[in-house]
Amino acid sequence: MTTTLLISILMTLAAAATPILIAALGELVAEKSGVLNLGVEGMMLIGAVSGFAVAVTTGSPALGCLAAMVAAGAASMIFAVLALSLTANQVATGLALTIFGTGISALAGAPFVGLTTPTLGLVFPPSLAADPVLRLVFGHSPLVYIALILTFAVWWFLSRSRAGLILRAIGESDGAAHSIGYPVLKVRYLAVLFGGAMAGLGGAYYSLVLTPMWAERLTAGRGWIAIALVVFASWRPGRLALGAYLFGAVITLELQAKAAGFSAFAPEFLSSLPYLATIVVLAVISVGRAGGNTAAPACLGKPFRASA
């Protein structure tokens, strides 16, 4: 394997892992507060189409990223009102959000099919990215570096800040947190909003960096991988980053096999590899936790009703 090919594979790996990592970080924070939002895929699609539409209209991919976060954050508030204020079933509401996001993104994106938009520029001088070796460090999209910074920021927030401690306390025992005066619903609303914004940013990565174009169901189910990744990482940001790059390696393997014309398996089988890996990982985790030992927040998915 030549150095150029190896660098190309590693660049592809980072590109494949980044949107999953960003979306998963948002879901991790929401779940740490005790909220299970299965609408990540729908919010990613809403972010992808909103970001693309704004970028095409304004010519600014940066504004597109901001619009993606706002649109997906707004969609997450629909979930929050239903699941938190009206105490609807979180699983059913999250699935409904995914269905809604898939449909509304297809409708809103119809006028933009076939169009292209400028991509986000490089953070570092192009001369650094031109070098074959330095390109591995300095040649990525800004969102790749933002994803790594966000990983550290989420770790610090959850483990070192007072606000993070409050959020984790609410996720573990919302009744006890409420009894000592912490605003359970406010914290959960903010956590869900953050999760939506991150899902939107992850979706925008597909339409503004990877392609950059709009196509129906552009995210191809990566939101479900992001949700599974949170479980795989045992709700820990460091493991989440490692897991995202592991799944990125599986996706890269699929792409490289197709590019090389590997014909031992059907293309459909190669496309299913990331999802097969997700199923295997979740199955192994489930077997390992059959005895009831789990790192999941104790109140995850449970509705909160304030007592008098």
Explain what you see.
- The protein is mostly helical and 308 residues long.
- The protein has one domain (3-288): ABC transporter involved in vitamin B12 uptake, BtuC (Orthogonal Bundle), CATH 1.10.3470.
- Helices cover 72% and strands 0% of the residues.
- Helix 2 packs antiparallel against helix 3, helix 2 packs parallel to helix 4 (90-109) and helix 7 packs across helix 8 (162-172).
- It is globular.
Features:
ABC transporter involved in vitamin B12 uptake, BtuC
The main sheet comes to:
none
Unreliable stretches, pLDDT < 50, 5 or more residues? Answer: none
DSSP strand (E) fraction?
A: under 5%
Q: How many domains is the backbone divided into?
A: 1
Q: What assembly state would you assign to the polypeptide chains in this entry?
A: single chain
User: How confident overall, as mean pLDDT?
Assistant: 88
